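User: Predict the structure for this protein chain, please.
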Amino acid sequence: MAAIDRTGFTYFDKNALINNIGNITPTSVLSQLGRSALAGLASGLGNPISTSAVQIGTSQLFKTTALDGASNDENLGQPYSIIPYSNLTNIASWPTKYKDSRTFKGKTFSISNVRVDGLAASLRRGSDNKTSKFAAAYAAASATPGGAYQLFNLETLYGWGNHGEPAAVRRDFTARSNVATQWDSINKQWIATKNPQELATEFRGDKITVVDYSKRKLSNVYRWNPRAINLDPKISEFLEKTDLTKDFIKFYFTGPALQNGLDSLTDDIMVFRAIIDSFSDTHSPSWTPVNMIGRADPNYLYTGYSREVNLSFTVYATSRDEMKPIYRKLNALASYTAPEYSKETIALKSPWLRMTIGDLLVQQPVLINSLSYTMMDADTTWEINIEDDPTMMQAPHKVTVSLGLYVLTDYLPQKNGKMYTLAKQFESNANPLPGPDNWLSDFDRKDITTAYDEWKAAKGQPSQTIKIGNPTPEESGTLQTLQNIATTSNFLSRFQNIG
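Assistant: Here is the predicted structure, written as structure tokens:
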């Protein structure tokens, strides 16, 4: 057998190869910071030639050393980081349930492997001049052994569920958990379960899907765990906060009373997991052609504006406890396509609601123009209720919802005005507060009632501002009053010849 000619080959040190975490070393980190700073200054000039020249210069100025000891400029230009072979056992033996692999790239803490994700965000302030405590907590968790994901993950933050818990008791698939509800035959309403066995059984399903339809405050939109035990109000308030979860994207429908800037009223709330299949937002100006003498082509007269959102999302049940809340919410949503009847008049009262989807549209008034439920397709399974449970129904585990909506918005749609929310702080009249947490602070944020007052003043008529702010105690107890106010304000927004 001929001998192998090893001339010209460079061999890595065995220990360096096993413990390799890439070319990220304290020296290379500092070099990368220096290069990035100079390159950033050059890019600020807006000249691609100067940027390229600085990149070439910094490659020579800031050099790094590869694992084989040779100078390697390309290592600096293309930094990489991997988990060393010797640290794989550290991940497996880490005591927490969720493990963040980003924190196991080095044996010890150093400038080269400690992460501070969220630190920059924790230093920024909103329109209320407050910083984000959550961002600070996330940055602190990122820098600790085990990383941020062990504390901030799908289950702890987003209510994803704990379906695969190995220690869970699975001897009875019909057993209900602590989120179950029971019918109160005296008060004619659903209340939280009082069954000791159910109260002692952990709910391991989707905490968003199991949020039931009910009338509650806007701050309790994502309250998933109904509690039946009456405790001290302060203790109950604390426990209510621990019962709140959130979705990846805010997505829910509410009754008209729950506007931005107010949290004193209650109304219908229908929360769905944001498994959004499609979402389109169509703005439609109306133009009427006007023929002029001597011109073959028409002029166009602007006559109106409308806006329509089409939305499709899917609702899944991942446990039996989620079946009833799903269909209660679907039924409530469908009821907003039907009118409301009153004993005082034979006229039909039109239904409208508010929708939140991310920060694009936050609690904005909408009208449903179409709603369809796809109850059965090739992927659908059914709950057949084989055990004939009197509290369980035969229904599909999956429903696809297709929804068409007319969007009205709390603020006047106009040129250079606000068409989306994209804000986090609001006045009591639902107007977004200007500031760093409002991307549209420099757009006209005129609300509907202010616009109507200006219109009345231009006609020499007295202001008839409609109160949408904090209601009186009498108004707070009457949802009908608020609905009439809101309906009237939206009617006035069309600037009809009223009054």
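The longest strand covers residues 299-316.
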